[in-house]
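Tutorial, part two.
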Amino acid sequence: MLSSEEVLRQLAKLYNENPNGWRVLVGRDATGFYDTIVSHEKEAWQVKEHQVNPYQFVGFGSKVPEVTDPLLAADEHSFGLRPLSERQMRELMAAEENQRYAGELIAKFMSEAPTSAIELSGSRAVLQGPVAYSPNPLESISSAQARLDAELRSELRRLVGRRFRHTMTPYG
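Running the prediction step on this input gives:
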């Protein structure tokens, strides 16, 4: 188990090495912690975080022992970063009043292959996604993942209770 920052750093490195075939699923568990499941090929990682303030999350993450969830299976577009040209940005801004056309444009842009973050250095605009969202707590990917989820939740509760207790109660 690593800090969420370290897991995300490792994932960014892996993404830059091969930006194709990534899937991202986000949601919140029953305790209100944020869950992110990231998969690539036959591997997956889970990150569980607590929002300390609008600019800071703390948490833990780890590689998922077994991946069987159909939500992480390949779909039409893989997660990634896609540069947008000036022309594409103008098209998208012109379409802001027409949601259907804007959706078609975004689908067209998403059909392009994802690019590594390193290759985006000269880009003025970037389209990121898609990210699947689960309005309910994420279901376990496997029994081994359920154990991992419980471990991550336990460690995060301990961390938040020790260092960020003030963020667990509403203001009033």
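The chain has a mean pLDDT of 85. In part three we will examine how such features are distributed along the chain.
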